[in-house]
Amino acid sequence: MRILKYIFLLIVLALVGVTVFVATQKGNYEIVSSRVVKSPRSVVYGYVNDFRNWENFIAWAKDDASAKFTFPAVTSGKGGSASWKSGDGEGKIATYFAKDNDSLFQKMEFNGSPSEISWKFEDVVGGTKVTWKTKGKVNFWYKVQSVAKGGLERMLGAMNEQSLANLDKTLVYEVNTYSISENGTVYKSGSKFLKKTILSTIANAPKNMRIMLSKMQFFFRKNDISAYGKPFILYHSYDTANGLTRFSVCMPVKDEIRTAPGSDISFGEFDAMKSIKVTLNGDYSHRPEAWQRASDYISKAKLERDPNIRVIEVLNKNIEDTKSPSKWVTHIYFPIRSIAQPPKPAVTRQPVEPKPAENSTDEFSIQ
Questions:
Q1: Is the Cβ–Cβ distance between 323 and 55 less than 8 Å?
Q2: Close Cβ partners of 159 (under 8 Å, ≥ 6 residues apart)
Q3: Strand duo 232-239 + 312-317: pairing
């Protein structure tokens, strides 16, 4: 029995020693990690800026299958936020400052432990230098975990380094893996839809589209409205000389829906239209090349764009369907003018017994 008492005493002393050791470890930390990511600065900034992409590169999110993210209407830019729950606890993060293609400042809280995060993006030879600075304070139990992994700064630093490596790998593959195909002449079916319209610089259009699409989808969820098809972009104007475009982010609906007076969301509709269809498989940043392919196809086929009908981009598979940009699918429809055929001379025919009418489907490929 005396031996058991000694063993028990040694265990107690060991626990006290460990507790004292852990308690004396620094609870505050500041970690700076950097890496050259082999992608353009605007692409890297835009990707990090949207919390919906963090599951693709943040090390702990990729490694923890139990982590489930929740996204509000705004997930990028100032005011963007996200929250999550996992087997290790729950947390939230929000962006408080965002300077386009330059820097971000965010605040995060995980299991009651606050931290501040800053990002800096700089053009360098070979890509973009990303500098990620994190500082904060952790609780006792987090310090216990860090001691087992070589110390707090070593543990968190390794996670940040792995996250930046994931970011580089993800962007190099996901953004640069794409294809464009011309699908020829089709008839794009008409649609009723709710829309949100904005005048934007062409350079900022992709970013604004992501923000507006997120808000539209949140509006549908909040008001329990069912989308009657895939979301799409409707271009009202595209002024390359002044670098401006006016477009609407649209969600199709089955029947007409009237919104409240003063709402920035309104109802619209368009009829079926004869179009040249081009499909972009991959990240939306390759849209200008897809547009050029469509323009070249129209010129080569000696067709004529219809100036009275707008270009439509259907987001057949987007970030809501898959987190991998290489798997996104965008169908682009360029309206063309239907050339009227000259009237044929009248021909006198002998009366014949009428036959049942047949439906004609010539040239119809409803997409």
A1: yes
A2: 59, 60
A3: antiparallel
Cα separation, 352 vs 357, whole angstroms: 14
Q: Cα-Cα-Cα-Cα dihedral of 159, 111, 78, 67, to 10°?
A: 60
188 residue type, one letter: K
In order of 25, 44, 151, 160, 195, the CA distances from 28 in angstroms are 9, 29, 12, 17, 48
Model-wide pTM > 0.85 = no
In the block, tokens 């040239």 appear at 363
Of residues 268, 177, 264, 250, the one with CA closest to residue 209: 250
Spatial strand order of the sheet with 191-201 comes to 179-188, 273-281, 329-335, 312-317, 232-239, 244-253, 191-201, 265-270
The answer to whether 51 and 71 have CB atoms below 8 angstroms apart is yes
Name every residue whose Cβ is closer than 8 Å to that of residue 126 and which is 6 or more positions away in sequence. 36, 38
Domains of the chain: 25-176 (3.30.530.20), 180-335 (3.20.80.10)
Residues of the chain with pLDDT under 70: 1-27, 138-153, 338-367
Contact 214, 196 (CB under 8 A): no
Nearest to 128 by CA among 211, 31, 46: 46
Place of tokens 């005396």: 2
For the stretch 291-330, pLDDT in tens is: 999 999 999 999 998 888 889 999 999 888 888 889 999 9
180 and 244 Cβ atoms separated by less than 8 Å? no
Q: What distance lies between CA 138 and its chain's CA centroid?
A: 31
Bridge partners, 232 (sequence order): 250, 314
